[in-house]
Fold this protein.
Amino acid sequence: MTVAPWGPVLALHPALSESMASRGLAPRKPTALFRPHLSLAYNNRPRPAAPVIEAVTPLRTCSRPGGRWPDQQ
């Protein structure tokens, strides 16, 4: 799920990338391609996606104070 506001997270991303680079770790993607998000579930084995999708779909319509989520039109 996307998170908002993006500004503080986007500001943190290049700082973390610089910190990683100073320790010899390559950044995974440039900040311009980074989309802040929150992962709700991780799976370490194959399983049907439908139950997870069904469980989180109602969350996409939760109201947000001040308007819509950044990825909603």
Observations:
- The mean pLDDT is 79.
